[in-house]
Amino acid sequence: MKKKIKAFAAVALAGVLALGIAGCSGGGDAASSDGGDGGAAPAADGGSLRFMTGGESGTYYAYGNVLAQYATNGDYGLDVTALAGNGSQANIEALQDGDSDIAFCQSDVLAYAYDGTNLFEGAPYEDFSVVADLYQEQVQIVTCDPSIKSVEDLKGKTVSVGAANSGVYFNAVDILGVYGIELSAEGSADFEPVYQSFADSADSLKDGKIDAAFIVAGAPTTAITDLSTTKDTYLVSLDQAHIDELLASNPYYSEATIPAETYGTEGPVETVSVGAVIIANNSVSEDSIYNLTKSIFDGQQDNADAHAKYNELVLEDAAAITSVPYHPGAAKYYEEQGVTAGE
Questions:
Q1: Do residue 219 and residue 196 come from a single domain?
Q2: 263 and 295 fall within a common domain
Q3: What is the pTM of this model?
Q4: Which SUPFAM superfamilies is this protein grouped with (predicted)?
Q5: Cβ-count burial of 16 within 10 angstroms (0-12 exposed, 13-18 middle, 19+ buried)?
Q6: Is the peptide bond before 220 cis (omega within 30 degrees of 0)?
Q7: Phi-psi domain of 20 (left: phi exceeds 0; alpha: psi -120 through 50; beta: other)
Q8: Average pLDDT for residues 131-160, to the nearest whole number?
Q9: Residue 84, domain extent
Q10: At a CB cut-off of 8 Å and minimum separation 6, what does 88 contact?
């Protein structure tokens, strides 16, 4: 089933998001006073952290800037610089290459890296650990074609499946697979795949160059809200039988609903999600990651005013990743709150 995004609602929502980002620096004064209660320990590495987020039209970038500014402006002994990134795989590679200290990553992709599967087939990377699982990233199938009402309707169409070998690409492989639609490294006999970023996918939809796109990000996503200001835009729901089949075969997904008010759709959109996780290079000091983790939770109320996804932060969920170990600094913080990380 498709759900149309009402353009007037999307315009209003885009304005709210812009105000939230513009207001991040203004929220820093409050962060300084609130963070002072924490008694943050001085970090042996000086507390300077390069934070690889995501593309500027995605949720990683917006959320990451809110988080970085709060941690830096507060009394945590940290200087966190948010950097635009190119997705989960590239973010892990940035950690591996020494170009970043902490990064956003999908929960499925971090497991691929640690285990040496899919994106990291035969080349596992284990020199990183988990800081926090912050919120859920919904798989959003977006189209401007009202005739595309279900996943099956993607057959014979031109569809963006994310950047080549990205986390989005493998999400598309999984979802299309349960519907019997083939997608592999060789392409597809069932439809024409193209490999684009969120922003490029939105531009291609606007220009009529593609029929639909997979976007995996926390809803609301800027690329979608911006698109809906100029084009009639629809989200395609997954049906329950195929959701159940996907969950039975893949432990990284959760069932998810995008409420109607998120985009102003005519009804809720049924889909699946993966976790949006902050990971750290194991070389980052325990003190720095402890202080970072503390700042994430200290700032929950203030930061929710700057970015709505902060409302989804739950202590127990943040500590619940089991596929990769937690950084000692993060584990220490959770233990102080009565939660054992990784269980």
A1: yes
A2: no
A3: 0.78
A4: Periplasmic binding protein-like II (SSF53850)
A5: exposed
A6: yes
A7: alpha
A8: 97
A9: 22-135+276-336
A10: 104, 105, 106, 109, 110, 166, 167
